[in-house]
Amino acid sequence: MMVRHFKLLALVLMCCMSVACSGNEQDEDPIPVIDDTGPDAEPDTTPDDDCDGLAEGASRCDGAMLATCNGGVLQTESCDEGLSCDGGVCLCDNANDGVCPESCSQDPDCNTTCVPECSGLDCGPDGCGGSCGTCDTTDYCNSGVCETFDPLCNDTCGPAGDAGGYANDGECDDVGEGGGGICELGSDCSDCGARELPPIHCELNYNEDCPIGQRCDCDETSGECVCEVGTRGTAGPGETCTDTHDCASGLCFDEQCSARCDTGADCPSEMPSCNFLGYCAPEVCEPSCDGLTCGDDGCGGSCGTCSGDDICSEGACVAGEDEAVYCSASGYCTSDEACLISLGSSVSTCKPKSSATAQAVFEAAEDGQSYVYVGCDDDTDCGEGELCKWGVYAAYCVDNDSPRKVCNVNEPQPQCGSGNRCCPQTRPLSRESIYEALNLGICYPTTMACP
Questions:
Q1: Chain centroid to CA 208
Q2: Fewer CB within 10 A of the terminal residue: the chain, N end or C end?
Q3: Are 339 and 333 in contact (CB under 8 A)?
């Protein structure tokens, strides 16, 4: 009986302990269950882990791709051409072919995939900093095509050149073989020896032809500018240089920086002469009029003019003719001669129209190769039924079939014919204003305004 009461008491104690424990848990506030499916529920702004651990708005490089976490979604894109992914941003990829997207224009080493283009080209730049080839030493590169350099002399023959230069065929009129004197206008200069080939393209916009951070390495054989990564020089004309890249112009001659020029007025006092290549040079031309009473002094000036009807022939005044052609510093040419003028040096001379020299200058003038050929300056210099007609750089007699012809603005009408008048030619033919020097104009109908 005692055992039964003991068991009952133990059971009651166990139940009380169980109730006490349950009561302790119920003292804490229960966690409410929120119904987020209703119309007023707040949106869930906690994204799923679709960004692979990348924070919202952050970027990283996944190989060559730029990956960005945007709205909980990992978005990838490739960098623009010329850029590569580095540290979560697209940067210039710093290769050295010098072709850059606009966003990289200030990076001196920027790069894109550049495809050289040499289709139809024999020489010159390939568009990617390389070359499409070079020309033979007797040729030069003209817009990607190798052409033979015109052998006509237009000023001093120049010093003997090195490999890559050229020697013309002909005579130099004052010094012997290998000299550096003045060759006869319209002739060529073999007696003066080889001369460096004038760079046809490198001489113009030398460094400006290249992207920022690059400079022009002039190929002296082709005359083309090859752009290479490098620092441009800063030295100005007349300052010392040992290399072309010391000079801002890229032109270094005789250890002095030079510059492009049209006349000596464009050059500094340290090198006041504009040479036949169009570069400032320290040498000053010394006029020579020994034994001459008229004509050219060798430097574009005059040794004198003839009076009355006399004309200048080979430096001497002789009896002239009505058909004489005015020839700038040379005075007048006879009726069977043409006035040949070099635009490079402003030197003029008279030569028989039938001579090989005159014919060569005429062809060069017609092709715009720095010469003027004056075979007539008005109709009186031509035969019956002919007119004096001007081309771009040449005046010559043609059949009377042209509505426009040359006229002398100082001569009375009706040299242009009925219904026409002589209008001054306002566009100079050269830096020495050849039209103005010859008093030349163009015949225009009186119903038209002068140009």
A1: 7
A2: N
A3: yes
As a dihedral over the C-alpha atoms of residue 187, residue 192, residue 197, residue 203, rounded to 10 degrees, the angle is -90
Residue 155's closest CA among 186, 197, 193, 196? 186
47-85 tens-digit pLDDT: 456 788 888 888 888 877 888 898 888 888 887 766 778
What is the token pair recorded at 261? 């020029």
List the domain range (segments joined by +) for residue 386: 311-445
| AA letter at 351 | K
Identify the band that residue 150 occupies on the pLDDT scale cut at 50, 70 and 90.
very low
Answer whether 228's CB lies under 8 Å from 220's CB.
Answer: no
Q: How many CB atoms lie within 10 A of CB 134?
A: 19
∠ CA 294-155-191, rounded to 5°: 105
Q: How far apart are CA 343 and CA 186, in angstroms?
A: 12
| Tally of domains in the chain | 1
Q: Is the residue at 26 inside a domain?
A: no
Evaluate whether residue 348 is within a structural domain.
yes
pTM for the model stands at 0.31
Torsion angles phi and psi, residue 434, rounded to 5: -60, -40
pLDDT in tens, 329-346: 566 777 788 888 776 555
Q: Is the dihedral of CA 302, 307, 308, 313 positive or negative?
A: negative
Question: Per the domain annotation, does 240 fall within a domain?
Answer: no
Burial class (CB in 10 A: 0-12, 13-18, 19+), 27: exposed
Contacts of 55 (CB under 8 A, 6+ apart): 69
| Angle formed at CA 300 by CA 295 and CA 305, multiple of 5 degrees | 25
| Three-class secondary structure of residue 380 per DSSP | helix
Q: Burial level of 157, CB count in 10 A (0-12/13-18/19+)? A: buried
The residue to which tokens 């003045």 are assigned: 182
**Measured CA angle at 285 (ends 353, 190), to 5 deg:** 55
Using only the alpha carbons of the chain, give its radius of gyration: 42
CB-count exposure of residue 322 (10 Å: 0-12, 13-18, 19+): exposed
Report whether 98 contacts 211 (CB < 8 A).
yes
Question: Given 3-state DSSP classes, what are the helix, strand and coil percentages for the chain, each rounded to the nearest 5?
Answer: 15, 25, 60
**Domain-embedded: residue 256:** no
DSSP 20: H
d(CA 331, CA 397): 20
**239: alpha, beta or left, given left = phi > 0 and alpha = psi -120 to 50?**
beta
Let me know: does 237 contact 251? Beta carbons within 8 Å. Answer: no
- Cβ pair 387, 379 in contact under 8 A: yes
